[in-house]
Write a structure and sequence with these properties.
74% of the residues lie in helices and 0% in strands. The protein contains 4 helices and no strands. Mean pLDDT is 85; it is low at 156-171.
Length: 171
Amino acid sequence: MASLIEELIHTLEEEYEIYKQLIPIAENKTQVIISNDLDNLQDITDREQVMVDKVTALERKRENIIGNIGTVISRDPKTIHIKTIIQILDKQPKEQRQLSEIHDNLKKTIQRLVDINNHNKSLIQQSLEMIEFNMNFIQSTRMSPGNLSYNKGAAQLDMPTLQTGMFDAKQ
């Protein structure tokens, strides 16, 4: 079981390092979104995806380790969490402390990343709403009937033809 705990701690430390690297990327993403730099946004998204793939692989590894720990202690792996393992390690204070620290660090880092990503999501949503507003405004000005005043003959209306090619931004 000791080797499983060491492997779990190592895996969580690797995850923590990746999440720590994601924070400045997400913060940079905020600035890129604000400046509307789509090329840099695509680059950042690509870098994030590579890191997310690494985290996904580490998550699978962590789940396997927890499954093995569950087998060793005769408990259903679905009911075992990191906090549960921390409590079980009361006779191994060094490993308990390490696991507890990495758990707390991961929790804080992931929460920081969630906050930044929620802020970025809000900025993107506001940007999309502004684009939709502008598209609807442009469409309404192109489709307005124009000048409805009479000319000096009083019999004709100055009516431009409706332009086609615009789309309804809500569809």
